[in-house]
Amino acid sequence: MNPDNRLSQLNTWLGTLASKWSLDLTTTQPASSDASFRRYFRVLGNKNGLQTSFIVMDAPPATEDTKPFINVSKLLADAKLNVPVVLEKDIEQGFLLLTDLGNQTYLSVLNQQTAPKLYQDANNALIQMQLASKPGLLPEYDKALLTRELDLFPEWYLGKHLQIELDAKQKDDLAKVFDLILQNNLSQAKVIVHRDYHSRNLMVTDQNNPGILDFQDAVYGPITYDLASLYRDAYIEWEEPEQMDWLIRYWDKARKAGLPVQNEFGDFYRDYEWMGLQRHLKVLGIFARLYHRDGKDGYLKDIPLVFKYTRKVAERYIALKPLVQLLDSIEGIQRPDGLTF
């Protein structure tokens, strides 16, 4: 549907709520958009006698479903996490009125001075979320879903973006690498997985930091996935010693909290790297798809960092040598020296 028609429908819906929440519809303005077809607006109003701002989600029903957002919001709120509260909903039209967690993302304030405290808070919130995990609450991050995500790499990044057609041997090598990655991913303990737990979806808040956004695709899956999202972030890069420090702090606290992390940090770190590799390959495919299918070119600038993560992990493990050879052949990049575990 034409976005202007959607906006007209949205304003009509907000008009039905204006009296209840003292909404000033003249203040409605874009708040953000994301990699989906959802859009967000901010509008001023009144809650509990105090002037405040609200977020309005526009999720076109033809492409988006608001029910997962509503369900996961309640699940995380019950775990005492700081997430937007659904105040009003129109599932049929795809509109939600939400509490506002502000506009200061982690990404906008992260630096060498702020990072230790912000990531400590992010670790604590992640552990809190994972402790609320139970089977059956969310879809399984199963082999079929993990495989569909990996397949985005050859289809969209290699095929569509780079215009590369793999030969039979390359296809076979890539399939074997995918099998190894999946074996690792599926052997990990399962918890609630946000799936995009990174600096653009974590908000700096005065209380119960961080605010957590964009959780509607949450699943029940590998325990290291959100850590790979957080510390091998597509939008900001940290040196490995810094990553290691924050990961050790998470691992130590998670063990003491009773979460099913590996007993040895080396084993845990390997799981983190292999889970991150699955995510990096997927993200390369997603960023390419966002450009070629959806006309969103803003993610192209982030591809080099994700590719750098991919190559670095592939070079570190002898079992992943076929992936390194594939990357060399398709990118023409001289491989740097790397450790092999």
UniProtKB/TrEMBL annotation:
Extent of the signal sequence: none
Name of the molecule in the record: Aminoglycoside phosphotransferase domain-containing protein
Organism: Polynucleobacter victoriensis
Keyword ATP-binding in record: yes
Domain of life: Bacteria
GO molecular function, one term: ATP binding
Keyword terms, alphabetized: ATP-binding, Nucleotide-binding
Keyword Nucleotide-binding applies: yes
Record-annotated Aminoglycoside phosphotransferase domain positions: 28-252
